[in-house]
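Reader question, answered in our methods column.
A reader sent in the components of a multi-part assembly and asked whether the whole thing could be modeled at once rather than chain by chain. We filled in our standard form and ran it. Here is what they sent:
COMPLEX SIZE: two components
ENTRIES:
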Amino acid sequence: MKKNLLRHYSIVLVIILPTLLLLQPGHSPAETAEDKGLALAIEADKRNSGYGDSTADMLMILRNKHGQESRRNMRYRTLEAENDGDMSLTIFDSPKDVKGTAFLNYTHKLGDDDQWLYLPALKRVKRISSSNKSGSFMGSEFAYEDIASQEIEKYTYKWLRDETYENRDCFVTERYPVDKKNSGYSRQVVWLDRDEYRIWKVEYYDRKNAHLKTLTISGYQQYNEKFWRPDLMFMVNHQTGKNTELQFSNYRFRVGLGPDDFNKNSLKRAK
Amino acid sequence: MKYTLHLIFLIVSFLPWTTFVQAHEMNGHVSVEARLFANAPLYPDQERNNGSIALAPEYYHEWENGSSFTFVPFLRLDSADSERTHFDIRELNFLLLGDPWELRIGIAKVFWGVTEFVHLIDIINQTDLVEDLRGEDKLGQPMVHLSAPTDWGVLDFFVLPFFRERTFPGPDGRLRTPVAVDTGNPVYESSAEENHVDFALRYSQVFGFGDIGFYYFKGTGRDPLFIPSLNTGGQPVLLPFYRLIDQAGIDLQLVAGSWLWKLEALYQDNESENFYAATGGFEYTFIGVGDSTMDLGLIAEFAYDDRDDEAATSFENDLLLGLRLGVNDTAGTELLTGLSYDLDSRGNVLRIETSRRITDSLKLFLEGWAFFNVEPDDTSLYSIRDDDFIRLQLFYYF
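And here is the structure of the entire assembly that came back:
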């Protein structure tokens, strides 16, 4: 009851009050929808900060519109960086022809990420063109920008509404890529739950503003009494009828990874 | 060589085999290949086409502290060329992982370089030329390699106690010199011959805008000269002559949006000459061409060697243009085409490579090579001017 009252109060505060203020010329609104959208992103980021480093196993199942499946196994390592985006290393275990291939990414809050790919047959580390954001990750329905570390600075935000999504009270916000030139999207609509600020659904709209993909996330579990991680991410491409399932397992936190585990040497010895 | 092997086995046998991350992992591939040539051979001993089979298993073991042991033998059996039928130990090494340094002892492979078409500065491993014209297949090199990351870049030290001789096609094989190379009787400048101990030192650093590396190599050069001679049967042969060299190299790669700019350059000093050589250019990538999921890369590179026509390389003043297509489908379909144009002798080489996964463990590779406008004074291409071929390979991964 108290919670409901509180919510009513916040609705008044968040919608009605700014609207009233907006209608009155000469008064600046206390909090715009953009401010609120940004505040929600900051809070979500804050709740996930301090994880240090983590590892997980990933199984990616690619399905075409006929339901034919193709599987990829990967291992994922990530390190939280203090003043910049996170570092990550993805090692491919299957299909077997790409076994040992590894992908190193330095996310940056501003500007392009730094990316390298290790090709084990040639023992060669290749720098990758960093503007490849919209490109498909391993032939899947996930683009590089979808799986990259979601830094606050990569988008601008706008809170749209609050609504119940799958029995959870959610904020619905819209976010717009800052790098409009290289992103494949005009906007994304994100469902965040009010309790824990976890993302449950993202709708992706292409550059022509047509609904391209929908990501649903499920099976959240809490680790180290703080960090929520999903077991499943499911991406459907509405324009091609293809989908990709990304299953996570064996999450481990604070395993003792450091910057030396995310350089070209570690990329080369990743197996 | 023998000592290195002994050392590895000694170390490995004394290691605790109890704790592990990836224990006794076995992978690898076996492949069947057909090379079909468009024209009849130029030289009497040569067989027209060839079929072959290759096996490359990989054994890998990793301990909990990150140290590991790798063993990769390689065997090819070829229907036409007895020199192409060969065995090599690609890798047999032990990696000791310190914090943050790492030490690799044994037979291993190291690649340096950034450009697409000419692998100019790559020097640690010898080219396994019978495998492939691109020079990307390498023979295993015995080494002690210490890699030490520091705050201001990575330092790599190499001691290379044994020299590997380049492989060359035999009299029966195609894609060879007019007179076959006699790999059984190499000539060395060093009196220690293949036991001369080579050294290399490399510094490399990563920046947000690019990667840079410098190295210095002192030892027996990997590119041989050829001495016309007669073999014991009185037949004319070419003897490979390996000189002692001092070589400094640089590789640089800059990234700017969809642009990658690349440069490799070297300076070599040997008993008879000193020279510069360089290769560089750019790759520009279009992501999602024509609203598809395909990526298209445009590559333009230039290769220069100030030795002109005496260059041991076939690239002395060449323009190299390429197209790379990444389909981004589940089959991992890729296509790379390259056209080299010799600005002096006007000879062209066109190559097309494509690959596609058929199942999770089967992959098809198809490549085609064509040589045109080759003049008699183009020493590197003239003897292979009629060797246009397609190569079909089917890989099974286990």
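What stands out: The helical segments of chain A are 2-23, 33-48, 144-147, 264-269. Chain A has two domains: 1-30, 46-269.
Send us your own complexes using the same form.
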